[in-house]
Amino acid sequence: MKPAAFALAAGLALGLGRGSSAEPVEPPPESPEGADYQVEDGDSIEVDAVETSFGASGGSGEKARGRRRLRLSAGSFAADAREGAGDPLAGGTVESRGRSGRWSVGRIAPAWARGLVVGSTAAPWRPPAREGGATLRGRGGEGVRWRSGGALEIFGGRFAGRDLAGLRGSFAGAGAGVVAGRAGAPQASFGLERGALSSELALDRAGRWRAESGLERELAPFRLAARVRGGHPAFRALASPARAGPAQALSLQLAYGRGPGAAVPAARAALTGALWRFRPGLPGARAALEFAGRLPHHSRLSAGLEEQAGARREDAADPRRWRQGAWAEWRGGTGMLSLLLSGETWGARAFARDAVRSVSAAGVEWTGPAGLRVRVMHWAYRVRRGESLYYPEVESDRLVLRALSGAGERTRLEIRTPLAGGAVRAAASLAAPARHPPRLQWTMSWTRRASFRRSR
Q1: Is 93:108 a contact under the CB 8 Å cutoff?
Q2: Distance (Å, whole) CA 149 – CA 151
Q3: Which of 235, 165, 234 is nearest to 200 (CA)?
Q4: Rounded distance, CA 393 to CA 361, Å?
Q5: Which of 68, 75, 80, 78 is nearest to 107 (CA)?
Q6: pTM over 0.85
Q7: Beta partners for 197?
């Protein structure tokens, strides 16, 4: 998938009514291209609270499937459990915090330094300033993890089909660790964090290496972010071999109007450039200009231009392809009503000619009394064979990236309302692809969050 190819759809699904920008998102590289992908929403609950959720999903020609979730946070203890037939997020985690450290059992997602050995490295074509919310970097593994503050970490479990164990120590911003498995040579990680600079060097027993450094500087009113990576093309992290990414990369971003305390600036602009290479003969490049500004009557306009070249996956079917695109988004409304209109096009020739992907979207959200919300979104798309297009659907406890192909339309209705001390969220999506019968997908959930903190 090419992340900017559905940037506006992401803004519609994730940001309608929030005022957020059209943030590109994409599934991690280990996911099959052209297939739906689900990931946790990253939401958390407050201490001394419990949350229960019951839901179901189904569609045309499918049997309805139920799912349940329980989350608990009680100071020194926390738990999160999911259950459901065919649910890719099923499983759980139990955490215990005490003087000796913090234990985690179940789903674990350790991350060392910049993720070259344990965790996941950020794609070089993604803007460096947007990495903080990267919840789509994979699902970690299953096992046991113990941490003593930020000084010592030990874990063991199954990652990417391998049994692995790791040990890492940190002091004064410097860290060193080693991870090993039954069927693989050990790998070492050396990390350093000093203010705005973070670096990591990764080594394996065969002498292959990978190194990466990132730097962010405030040059008011601008912000500069840079990232550089180098190493051997054959280096693969034991814990996440499919997420190794390019062996060499360089990315730069110069942003204006997004400093501390400027959550919604009057004007914002960002210039991003990136070069990378998976191996000799498999390079890539990206250049993008994005800008946004306020308009009269509480509306905002965002637009962008981008050029892409080369491959973003090591197994790319067309490693030399070239794309140029443009997009625009208008967001407005006051009080109870919010509106959004957007459009984009991508072409294989200059000025986005010879279109390979095009998407137009419109959405409206109505906020009624007593917490009632109704949202309707509609997409019309056209995707040439061999291209991939994804758009996100937000559910009560997850983000689903839907894969689209060919030409067609999709309409989604969402309703959220308080009920029985909790909140009900129901959604129905009607897909109408060309030359295929319409297909309905639906989800429904009831979630209740309560505090058991004792009154003083």
Answers
A1: yes
A2: 6
A3: 235
A4: 14
A5: 80
A6: no
A7: 194, 215
Segment 54-75 shows an average pLDDT of 91
Residue 302 burial class via C-beta count within 10 angstroms: exposed 0-12, middle 13-18, buried 19 and up = buried
* Residue pair 206/185 in contact by the 8 Å Cβ criterion: yes
Amino acid at site 13:
A
Q: How confident is the model at residue 367 (pLDDT cuts 50, 70, 90)?
A: very high
Per residue in 298-322, pLDDT tens? Answer: 889 999 999 999 988 888 777 888 9
- 216-266 confidence digits (pLDDT tens): 998 888 999 999 999 999 999 998 888 888 999 999 999 998 544 444 457
| Cα gap 238→112, rounded to integer Å | 13
- Residue 444 tokens, joined: 């429904």
Dist. CA 427–CA 443, nearest whole Å: 5
What distance in Å separates the CA atoms of residue 127 and residue 130, rounded to the nearest whole number?
6
Q: Residue 283: helix, strand or coil by DSSP?
A: strand
Residues 6+ apart with CB under 8 A from 40: 89, 135, 397, 398, 399
Give CA–CA dist 151/27, Å, rounded: 32
What are the backbone angles phi and psi of residue 54, rounded to the nearest 5°?
-130, 135
Angstrom distance (rounded) from CA 193 to CA 151: 14
The pLDDT tens digits of the residues spanning 381-390 come to: 999 988 878 8
Confidence check: pLDDT of 20 > 50 = no
How many other C-beta atoms lie within 10 A of the C-beta of residue 82? 21
Give the span between the Cα atoms of 421 and 245, in whole angstroms. 46
Taken in order 386, 390, 212, 170, the sign of the CA dihedral is negative
Specify the pLDDT at position 138.
Answer: 52
Residue 192 exposed, middle or buried by CB count within 10 Å (0-12, 13-18, 19+): middle
Task: Find residue 407's DSSP bridge partners.
Answer: 382
Parallel/antiparallel/unpaired status of strands 101-108 and 222-231 = unpaired
d(CA 324, CA 348): 7
CB distance 376 to 412 below 8 Å: yes
258 Cβ neighbours under 8 A, 6+ residues apart: 129, 223, 265, 268, 270
Phi-psi region of 129 (alpha: psi -120 to 50; beta: other; left: phi over 0): alpha
